[in-house]
Amino acid sequence: MTVYKYKDPDKSHDIVLKKTVYKDDSVIIYFSGDTEFSKEAKSSIECFDKDGKKISESKYSFKFKDGQVIIKTSNPEKISGVYLYPDEYHDMYFMIRYLDSDDYAILTNYFVYDLGWSPSGDEDKYLFESEKKEREDNAAEAARIDSEAMEMLVGHWVCENGNTIDITEDHECKVYIAEDDYEYEDYFYRIYYYFEDSLNAYEFTCSTGDTTAPRWFYMSSDKIYLYDDKDMENKYVRED
């Protein structure tokens, strides 16, 4: 039997691991916290090896009991990480690695409407070195795409209804509404990418006081148009 006690557990999540015990035929994780796990709630787990690869569910069984998750398996030494799902909905769960050490790592993964999955916690501690490198590469690629999209947006845009939008390299916008003879300053802070038909479609979200308003621009091989919404109403053409 091998016991891993966690001397300085991460207490910023709704579950705190105390220790993990490796026996000949099982792995027992002892935990505390506000999140409840039970058969009635259809709580479940997934197991992973030292490389983060998922272990087939046919290789183990599990049950939750009084602050423990007991994993029955013929190869307990292969289990190094787990996902713990409190209920059947899986819109929040705990991702845990390095159980077979004195310092585990944990992320709480939340599903956020319109954004998708959003992990919370110390990612640098949790991620493998290869995953950190991939994260850096993805961030660099996203920054490159953002820069290219920004260059497409900078300029003076004129709408067929008389509205105008002026966008600077600093992401600042000046929007003029012709019908109301009203001008206000704006700022866009996020760009989304879509590919619809033969067009590259981009959404950038503008912040106006306490509200946000999406606008879209579409780029074909030779034209760029900006719209007030995805339905392509109120087309703007950039005056170069």
How would you portray this structure in words?
The chain is mainly beta. The chain has two domains: 2-127; 150-239, Beta Barrel (Lipocalin), CATH 2.40.128. Helix content is 12%, strand content 49%. It has helices at residues 123-126, 129-153; strands at 2-5, 15-22, 26-33, 44-48, 60-64, 68-73, 81-85, 92-97, 105-112, 116-121, 155-159, 164-167, 172-177, 182-196, 199-208, 211-219, 224-227, 236-239. Strands 11-12-13-14-15-16-17-18 form an eight-stranded antiparallel beta barrel. The protein has a five-stranded antiparallel beta sheet with strand order 1-2-3-6-5, with no helix packed on it. The protein has a five-stranded antiparallel beta sheet with strand order 4-7-8-9-10. It is elongated and about 75 Å long. Residues 189-199 and 207-214 have low confidence and may be disordered.
Secondary-structure topology with pairs:
Layout: E1 2-5, E2 15-22, E3 26-33, E4 44-48, E5 60-64, E6 68-73, E7 81-85, E8 92-97, E9 105-112, E10 116-121, H1 123-126, H2 129-153, E11 155-159, E12 164-167, E13 172-177, E14 182-196, E15 199-208, E16 211-219, E17 224-227, E18 236-239
Antiparallel strand pairs: 1-2, 2-3, 3-6, 4-7, 5-6, 7-8, 8-9, 9-10, 11-12, 11-18, 12-13, 13-14, 14-15, 15-16, 16-17, 17-18
